[in-house]
Design goal:
There is one protein chain. It contains 9 helices and no strands. By secondary structure, the protein is mainly alpha-helical. Helix 3 runs parallel beside helix 5 and helix 7 runs antiparallel to helix 8. The relative contact order is 0.17.
Length: 220
């Protein structure tokens, strides 16, 4: 293992001075609301809109899990990681909320989760019986935790909770990266594409950090 891989996780500097998740999210909403005014960027396509809607749902659970861990863990590295995840994803959620407001569209559409990802034929989100997938099944395909897993995370303590958090968050981030891969193929709005690329880069780094923590805690 290289020195870089074994080094303790260090959060992005801005995360350490954030005043709180609500402030970050509110600021990001304002940025998203006004960032395209006066520009000549093309409008969004269906994939851009679907990504912005679905990723808000996805991010909301990441913030929830990160705050459960942040409040409970005694592992300093995981406190830093969970804080960074919560603040970063709250900021991004506010930005995506602002996009949709700016586009003059409702925050929730009538399509099921991930319907926009099927446009290239690469994702068939059918249920296990061949019927349309339920929302719970679609959330699982997105890497999201079930209600039972969230209850388990809340109830766990100590190393058990730390290991469960890292497991759930790695799966969650992996699902987000798959969504970014899809928007890179299907999206058309340059701001959406740039933001999505940044999401993937940060979440890949966090996956590496979480895997390092799992090794340190002997989670497996």
């Amino acid at each position: 293992m290289s020195d870089e891989e074994s080094a303790p996780y260090r959060p992005r500097p801005w995360a350490l001075i954030a005043l709180g998740i609500l402030l970050v999210g509110g600021t990001a909403f304002a940025i998203g609301r006004f960032s395209t005014f006066g520009g000549a960027e093309p409008g969004p396509n269906a994939a851009d809109v679907g990504f912005a809607r679905d990723m808000q749902v996805h991010h909301a659970q990441a913030v929830e899990m990160a705050m459960i861990e942040y409040r409970a863990t005694s592992d300093e590295e995981l406190r830093l990681i969970s804080y960074d995840i919560a603040t970063a994803q709250a900021q991004q959620s506010g930005q995506m909320f602002g996009w949709i407001v700016n586009w003059g569209l409702p925050q929730r559409g009538s399509d099921p989760l991930m319907a926009w990802m099927a446009e290239d034929g690469g994702h068939d989100h059918g249920g296990s019986t061949g019927e349309p997938a339920s929302e719970d099944e679609l959330r699982a395909e997105m890497g999201m935790a079930s209600d039972a897993e969230l209850d388990e995370l809340r109830a766990a303590t100590g190393a058990e909770q730390d290991c469960l958090f890292t497991e759930l968050m790695i799966r969650h981030h992996t699902g987000a990266i798959e969504m970014v891969d899809a928007i890179q193929r299907l999206g058309g709005d340059p701001i959406v594409l740039r933001t999505a690329e940044g999401m993937a880069e940060s979440q890949e780094r966090e996956i590496q950090a979480l895997e390092s923590v799992r090794a340190r805690l002997a989670c497996d």
